[in-house]
Fold Potassium channel domain-containing protein.
Amino acid sequence: MGLLLGFALVAAIWSRTTTGLLAVRGVKPNSKERPQAAIMVAFVGLLALHTIEILAFAAVYRALQGWGVGGFDGSYDPCWSGLIYFSGVNFATLGYTQIEATGPIRMVNMMQSLGGFMVLTWSATFL
């Protein structure tokens, strides 16, 4: 169940990233006329996009905990900022943190790491 849910969430990230990249491309200035402004707009747009994705996964982890689908051990702080921290580290660094996921959430955690790696690489290529 966790692997299937993680797969679906990564597919949603891919869809959101595709839409976000197209939106950033549409609002950024012409790269030939204003190269610094184009890079700055693209960077801030991608930062906002990936922050939203991190927050979305934090919300999913909160919901999964509430449904009793798994939990967290280690240095986990059971507040919203703890979930954002876990989600952000997992998204950006392939999940190496002092917090350990337990139960089916572990598979969602693994898929978030894979999805984060993929979309961050894609975003770097876009820049």
User: Anything to note?
Assistant: The beta strands are 71-74, 99-102. The first strand starts at residue 71 and ends at 74.
